[in-house]
Amino acid sequence: MALLHILPLNVTVHLAESAPLSDLEFELKDRDVIPAGCRAGACGACVIEVLKGFGCLSEPTERELELLTFLGYGDGRFRLACQCRINGAATINTENLEPHF
Q: Over the chain, what is the mean pLDDT?
């Protein structure tokens, strides 16, 4: 099982190995943890900041990195939750991550 710690909620969730972070909506049904948009890595609604365990997430695609850079999140700390799969333990921040157009 993979462990994902979510700030600022201060909640830890167990996910299956290689599970997409979009599975959080099923694990935390009563909470809007990560905004969802297209779920295809095209809109940028689900930007998260990875605080720990970046290496426990799947590698970002070139397309994802281009969109993050376009949105102002190109410094390597951010991912699109819909594009991440977790393998291990990670900590993410979901607060104050509005697009920087």
A: 87
